[in-house]
Amino acid sequence: MKVLVFSDTHDHVDRVEQMITEVKDKVEAAIFCGDLCAPFTAAQLLQLDMPIYAVFGNVDLDQGYIIERSEGKIDWDALGHEYKELELDGRTIAFNHYPKLAELQAQMGEYDAVFHGHTHVVRNEKVSETLLLNPGAVCGIQNGKYGVSSYAIYDTKTNTAEIFELS
Length: 167
Description:
Elements: E1 2-6, H1 13-23, E2 29-32, H2 39-45, E3 52-54, H3 63-69, E4 74-76, E5 83-88, E6 91-96, H4 99-108, E7 113-115, E8 123-127, E9 130-134, E10 141-142, E11 145-146, E12 149-155, E13 160-166
């Protein structure tokens, strides 16, 4: 199974639209690692028309309205939860917004893969047998300047991820 993993859209609807166009026929599910920002971007994600699992980030301030705009079609973490766990195609996955939490989860060795966002910097490495992945930022902002806009596609069969850059 191929899964879109993305984070930190920060209301850059043009980049979100480009990502959706690129992946729509290539993946079967999506995992979002936080920092959507405005509720209207949640409605935009519904164009994916597939299961979407999501957690909130530190700038997702109007969580109630984000959930409302998702029309019940995005599986958000419960308000106040720090991370979400799920099983896809036999793989145990944990994801959240924060790198330190993700590092600790990867070190525990209880998950096949752990995903996070927040830093806007790509990370694709193994911690023992656990894949630790930050897909970078869809918005393309790094250190206050425009840089690389990216997302990842995770392969449950190989427990690996490939990073894709938006131009």
